[in-house]
Specification:
- The protein is an alpha/beta fold.
- It has a domain of 260 residues: Alpha/Beta hydrolase fold, catalytic domain (Rossmann fold, 3-Layer(aba) Sandwich).
- 37% of the residues lie in helices and 13% in strands.
- The strands form 2 sheets. It has a 7-stranded mixed sheet with strand order 1-3-2-4-5-9-10, with helices on both faces.
- Helix 3 packs across helix 14.
- The protein starts with a helix and ends with a helix.
- The N terminus is likely disordered.
- Keywords: Hydrolase.
- InterPro entries: AB_hydrolase_1, AB_hydrolase_fold, MES/HNL.
- One of its GO terms (biological process) is jasmonic acid metabolic process.
Length: 379
C-alpha cells in the first residue's frame, strides 16, 4: 500500500519554456465559429421547448397547491407586446395551411399570430372552457391556454373526475354525470347572463354535449375537436365501435382494468404507453409525447358506455362547430366525417397535418380557428 501511495504522490515537474505558435489558418476559425453558431441555435430551440414544458409543469403545480381538485383556471400569464397586423377575414377556411413544419420548431410567440385584432367587447363571450379527452387532463391545453390568454381571452381548463390532478380514482367513477361533475358544477356556478364557449376534445365531445343539454342558456358556442359528437341515444362506445377492426390501433392499445375483480365488468381503460405516439401523437413534438406519457391517466369505463339523452330544444339550440384532424389515428377522418354528416354542425373545419391532439401538433392553426369561431356573430 505504501508503494502504491508513493507511486501516486505528486512529483515536481520542471516547467518548459512556452513556444508561441503563429495564428491558426483563418478557415479553422470559421469552421469552429460556424459549429458554435449551429450549436447555439439548436440550444435555443431546445430551450424554447423546455420553457413550454416548464410553464405547463409550473402551472399544474401552482394550481394543485392552491385549488386542489378545482377547475384549472389560469388568471395570469407571460405577456408579450402586441404588434400591428392586418385584419383577418371573418370567413373560416375549410383547411389550414399544410406547410411542413419541423417538430422541433419552437412555438410561435402570440404576437406573431395574424389575429391580434380581436375586439373582445364585440364578442358575445370572451370566455373559453376547455374540456379534455379520455385519459388526458387540463395539462394538455397548456399551449392553447397561453395563446388565447395572450389575445385577451379568459380561459378555464377543466379536470374531469379522476383525470389530470383531480383526486378521485378513475376506477371509482360509475356514471357520466359523476365524470362530468367538475364541468357541470362550473357551469351551474356561472353567474346568470354569462356565457362561455365550450371546447371538447375526444371523449370530451360527449361531455360537453351532456353539459349543453343541462345548461344551453350558458353556452354561446360548442366546438368539437376530433371529438365524439353523438346523436341522441348514442354512446361513445358505439361511435368507437364503428371503426373497430382486428388491426385497429385503439383496440390494440386498450388495457382493461378490473378494480372490482376479474369476474366483474371493467372499471377503467388504460392505454399502452408504447403505443401512445402512434395512436394519439403521430405528428406531435417528442417533448409533448413525453409530457403525455407521464401525465395520462386511465379512462373511466362506465361513462363510455352511457347513452346520451339529447333534445333539439336544449342541446340542439346551441351552435356547434366541428374541427377535423386529418391525420388522426384514434378517431380516423372517416369516422369524424360520418359524425358530421349524421348530425351536421353549423360549420366543419379541417386541420391538415393534425394528429388526434391538435393542441400539440398544430397549436397555432388550432388557435386561429378557435379565435375565428369566437368572432362569428349570430346575424
Amino acid at each position: 500500500m505504501g508503494n502504491l501511495c508513493a507511486c501516486l504522490a505528486t512529483q515536481p515537474v520542471k516547467k518548459k519554456p512556452i513556444k508561441r505558435l503563429p495564428n491558426p489558418p483563418p478557415q479553422s476559425n470559421t469552421s469552429n465559429r460556424w459549429t458554435r453558431i449551429r450549436s447555439s441555435r439548436k440550444e435555443k430551440l431546445d430551450d424554447a421547448l423546455l420553457q413550454e414544458q416548464a410553464l405547463a409543469a409550473a402551472i399544474l403545480f401552482q394550481q394543485h397547491q392552491q385549488n386542489g381538485s378545482l377547475p384549472f383556471d389560469r388568471s395570469a400569464s407571460l405577456r408579450y407586446p402586441n404588434s400591428s397586423s392586418k385584419k383577418s377575414s371573418n370567413a373560416l377556411p375549410r383547411s389550414s395551411s399544410s406547410r411542413a413544419r419541423s417538430l422541433t420548431d419552437p412555438l410561435l410567440q402570440p404576437h406573431q399570430l395574424v389575429n391580434q385584432d380581436v375586439k373582445l367587447d364585440d364578442l358575445e363571450t370572451n370566455h373559453f372552457v376547455l374540456v379534455h379527452g379520455g385519459g388526458f387532463g387540463a395539462w394538455c391545453w397548456y399551449k392553447t391556454i397561453a395563446l388565447l390568454e395572450e389575445v385577451g381571452f379568459k380561459v378555464t381548463a377543466i379536470d374531469l373526475t379522476g383525470s389530470g390532478i383531480h383526486s378521485s380514482d378513475a376506477n371509482s367513477v360509475t356514471s357520466l354525470s359523476q365524470y362530468v361533475k367538475p364541468l357541470t358544477d362550473f357551469l351551474e356556478n356561472l353567474p346568470e347572463g354569462n356565457k362561455v364557449i365550450l371546447v371538447g376534445h375526444d371523449f370530451g365531445g360527449a361531455c360537453i354535449s351532456y353539459a349543453m343539454e343541462l345548461f344551453p342558456h350558458k353556452v354561446s358556442k360548442a366546438i368539437f375537436i376530433a371529438a365524439a359528437m353523438l346523436k341522441n341515444g348514442q354512446s361513445t362506445l358505439e361511435m368507437f365501435s364503428q371503426q373497430a377492426t382486428s388491426d385497429d390501433l385503439m383496440r390494440q392499445a386498450q388495457i382493461f382494468l378490473y378494480a372490482n375483480g376479474n369476474n366483474q365488468p371493467p372499471t377503467a381503460i388504460d392505454l399502452d404507453k408504447s403505443m401512445l405516439k402512434d395512436l394519439l401523437f403521430n405528428q406531435s413534438p417528442a417533448k409533448d409525447v413525453a409530457l403525455a406519457s407521464v401525465s395520462m391517466r386511465p379512462i373511466p369505463f362506465a361513462p363510455v358506455l352511457e347513452k346520451l339523452s339529447l333534445s333539439d330544444l336544449k342541446y340542439g339550440s346551441v351552435r356547434r362547430f366541428y374541427i377535423e384532424a386529418s391525420e388522426d389515428n384514434a378517431i380516423p377522418i372517416t369516422v369524424q366525417e360520418r359524425m358530421t354528416k349524421e348530425s351536421p354542425p353549423e360549420q366543419v373545419l379541417r386541420l391538415k397535418g393534425a394528429d388526434h391532439s391538435p393542441f400539440f401538433s398544430k397549436p397555432q392553426a388550432l388557435h386561429k380557428l378557435l379565435v375565428e369561431i369566437s368572432k362569428i356573430s349570430s346575424t
